[in-house]
Amino acid sequence: MTRRLVLTAAVAAATVLVAAPAASAGGDRHGNPRGIDLQERFDHIGAHVHSLETRPGRTSYYIDEGKPGWTPVVFIGGAGTSLEAFQLTEFARTSREALRVRVISVERNGFGESTLDTSLDYADYNAEVLAVLDHLGIHRFAIMAISGGGAYAAQLAAAAGPRVTTLHVAAAVASTLPGRTLPAACSRTVAELNAINVAFTHFPKVWWAVPPDSPVHAIPGWQAEAYLDAARSFFVGGQLGAPDALTHEQRLPCAPDAVVDPRDISARAYLYWGEVDPLVPPSVMAIWQAALGPNVVRATVYPGEGHTVQYRHWDQTLADIAGFGDHTVMCVRGRTRLIPEHRAERELARGATLGLCAWAESG
């Protein structure tokens, strides 16, 4: 009994010692210490994944980040990516919300939580996306695609026609457009592709690793989040690293009807490319330009930049989606601003830099 009393007293003394500094700091009328404001709401740690039966026996998974009334955009990530890929753009969430951009992304066949059905093609994905948009009450929308998502973007833009307001493609493949080069996957069997792809699907860090000189390394946690996307793509649905979905996606452009008629695409288009992109070089942007013709509002090649140009200039993409295509996102004297196009060159000459000020500070 005596020993227990001594321990209780010691704990009580320790509690007084810990509480004393806060108590002596003063507080408001409720006793809350001055200068400490704890939150009332949860912080954002990731997009909520919704599910919807888009056809009998087929469940589609999607995210919907934003509010009704904001500009809706369908986001299509690169080859083999899941819904988690959108999180790689949320380093600019504050700007996205300020610009009132609402992002919807639908998981593609076999990746993440989506069940693989090898009978499905681009038309089926279009149907899933449009079913989700109809469910959300969205008629008119923009499309934003990166890298391998370009194949889906052209298909969706052609299928939806006048429903698409603007089309934004960044370092995106043109494998479903006239003038394309037939993908290498079309000359290989499914077994051969599976044997190649398993080296990626079994080791997600290989699939999403970016070069050490990429500007995205300046974003805290970006590379780690990218690895999580690959893990979701190839494991979260119980795939256990199976390469089948990736192989199926790679072979979709091989179908006889894979190439769209660009005359069916009426949306105004914005193209973003890196000058030294080794994966999807500017010559691919030229295919987009030739196919879309006068619909191309702006085609930008950023000097010295590679395949992660879509993240480095995501801020500009957001501004374009929101209707500020005649403005340039710039860091001017330590503040991020939307500068009218006719003043951009002058500001650059005065020392301004492209994009959020965070990029200038990290460089």
**CATH homologous superfamily designation of the largest domain:** Alpha/Beta hydrolase fold, catalytic domain
Straight-line distance between termini: 65 Å
Please bin the fraction of helical residues: 25-40%
Low-pLDDT segments = 1-24
Widest sheet: strand order?
1-2-4-3-5-6-7-8
Output the CATH class name of the largest domain.
Answer: Alpha Beta
pLDDT averaged residue by residue: 93
Q: From the 3D coordinates, which CATH architecture of the largest domain would you assign?
A: 3-Layer(aba) Sandwich
Number of domains: 2
CATH topology of the largest domain: Rossmann fold
Count every helix, treating DSSP H or I runs of 4 or more residues as helices: 13
Reported for the largest beta sheet, the result is: 8 strands, mixed
How many whole angstroms does the radius of gyration measure?
24 Å
Overall, the morphology is globular
Strand/helix succession: HEEEHEHEHEHHHHEHEHHEEHEH
**Structural class by sheet pairing and helices:** alpha/beta
Summarize the structure.
By secondary structure, the chain is an alpha/beta fold. The protein has helices spanning 2-24, 93-98, 122-135, 150-160, 190-201, 204-208, 222-235, 244-251, 282-292, 309-312, 314-321, 341-349, 357-362, and strands at residues 49-55, 58-65, 71-76, 101-106, 141-146, 164-170, 268-274, 296-302, 327-332, 335-340, 353-354. It is built from 13 helices and 11 strands.
